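Question (not urgent): is this output format expected?
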Amino acid sequence: AYAPWFESTPAAPLEGALRLLLHALSFPHSWHAAARAFKVLCMRCAARLCSAPVVQSLAAVAATAVAPVPAAGQVASYVNMPLEDRQAIVEGLARVLTFMGPQHVLDSALSMQQPHLARTQSIISHGSSTAAQGGAAAKQLLQQLADELQLMAVLIKGMEFPGQPPTGFAHPALKLLEAAWPVLSAVADAPVCRQDRPVLEAVCEVYKRALQSARGSAKPLLTMLLTAVGELFTETQQAACLDVLSTIAEVFGEVKNAPELAAAQKQAFEDAAGAAGAVLLQRLASQGLSASGDVLRSLLAVADAHLVFARELFLSSSVLPQVFQWAVAAASLREKEPANAAFSFLSHLLAASSKVFAAAAEPLAAGGAASAEQQAAARAAAALQKCIAAHGQQLTQTLVVAACDTSPRQLLRALASVLYQLLQEQLTGQLGRQWLLAALQSPELPGQH
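Got this back:
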């Protein structure tokens, strides 16, 4: 409540108030209120706190409550404070860091990350046997590991700066990821961690936050990230790995002026989509598609991200027909997330198809050969026409049945948009009307029995 006063009053005892709030973290009943107040004060008054001595002092006091350094040779002690409150403290301090000079930002950020790295390393080095035994103790230890990784992700997320860092300085988010890479690799390589979904999701969250913060500065690590995430998905089949590839597509789009990196990006996407399809086929026979909704959603989301941000890559990929089929299957589900991902992907695909068909139909320049763009458009148009011709009738029937029966009500508008696009003259013409008529007479519709 007093944050506006502290912000507008230079003589206000800001540091004293922050230290008092950190002291309040010693008492469980005040955790939430103190953490929230600390974050708000840091957010609003960051410009007054951005000297290195002040930041280091506050971070050192905060670490005793948020991330106490483990004793040598022992597993880090469990922190009873809820993760949400610990994250609020880290978010507040990270905000202050962004107001510091480049060199001070790097030093302070690495210093703030160190306790979390030490705690993570202690769990990997000295707690693996406990985690492997199972039971309540193992569950708590793995949750503790996931929490430390999530806190590192919050710190990295806070390292968002406008523009690029000054010449000669690496982006702080990139340096934090580099410092954490050995620990992240150790976590990803540990068999007991690979079997724990929250831990793997936390590892992937660190990757995603680093990409989103560093953006173009993360390009030197892109090949290593593509390899690491691809291998992790192959080994664990966790949907969070595919979400990292979605983030890469959103951040980098179509990689230009780097043929080897562009090839690696395309190969990573095709391999991941192929592996996800194999997982879905394997589970389909025994569990049904609904039981694999997380992988299906992530597969369609990563395809959608590449379609939107790296269209040429996606349309020229070998997995287009496969992803189209999975989208048709997901559109029939009652589960909201995979169905929503299917409608988003199909809407973008049909919109892209209209543009590609129009580009492919453009007349050649008088006496000239087709340009590279026209040749690419012609190839993409042929691939899209083949997919629509092969699966358009099934998609039409699926959409009609879903509209009448299976689709969640909040997704009906998205469903109707896909059906409208599919039936446009330039996409399906008379054939589309025939599909619609057949779908309306389908015995699968409610009341047709």
